[in-house]
């Protein structure tokens, strides 16, 4: 499938999705969200893809926010629908994908851009990255899960500070508060993510999918995360990967997962 605003590349078992609107600092508009939805659905369903890297084109921005011109004249109902549709279409889709998704954050990750990175399973930032949720300076709040995921990742106090002040934080500060997992130079960003993705790809994809489901359960209302862990742990025993993994261990060799 051809895309207008994103690039899709696959090398062996790793797919890289690049948001490609450098003239707009990769801002998220309706078309880009729809294309991200399709690309992630396809990559997640492709059994030859074991890890997805999500990044932005150019050296200035991962995603500098949403395209404000598209919704500046919306009313209350339209605003609520915008947030709900976006969360379902892309942000919740990323969080619940069974294929690991790594955000390679280069440059600005603001508003919807930071929300997009936070929806990924974890984040690697370049040392020039700047992150923030500036929505209150526009008279609105984050609407793509930012109020929830930032508090989960960085804590309630830090989340409220960042949201209420609308200030950006540096990559190093993001690392200190747990918002990102690693900070590397801009030149090292994609190679580092690819190396990490390769390491992940060698492990059981069915076990990784089960782990994602179990971890996410802890943040869902009405679901007991410990019970979900027990369920997913048990399900692993019925998979070919469990047989291969345990057999390889007992035979003192490296497993070869299908």
SSE diagram, text form:
Layout lengths: L5 E6 L2 E6 L10 H16 L5 E6 L4 E3 L12 H21 L4 E5 L2 E3 L1 H8 L2 E5 L3 E3 L13 H9 L1 H10 L3 E2 H6 L5 E3 L4 H13 L3 H13 L7 H12 L3 H11 L8
Parallel strand pairs: 2-3, 3-5, 4-6, 5-7, 6-8, 7-10
Antiparallel strand pairs: 1-2, 8-9
Structure description:
The structure is a single chain. The protein has helices at 30-45, 76-96, 112-119, 146-154, 156-165, 171-176, 189-201, 205-217, 225-236, 240-250, and strands at residues 6-11, 14-19, 51-56, 61-63, 101-105, 108-110, 122-126, 130-132, 169-170, 182-184. By secondary structure, it is α/β, with parallel strands linked by helices. The chain folds into 2 domains: 6-201, Alpha-Beta Complex (2-enoyl-CoA Hydratase, Chain A, domain 1); 205-250. The strands form 2 sheets. Strands 1-2-3-5-7-10 form a 6-stranded mixed sheet, sandwiched between helices. Strand 2 (14-19), helix 1 and strand 3 (51-56) form a beta-alpha-beta unit. Helix 3 (112-119) packs across helix 4 and helix 4 (146-154) crosses helix 5. It is globular, with a radius of gyration of 19 Å.
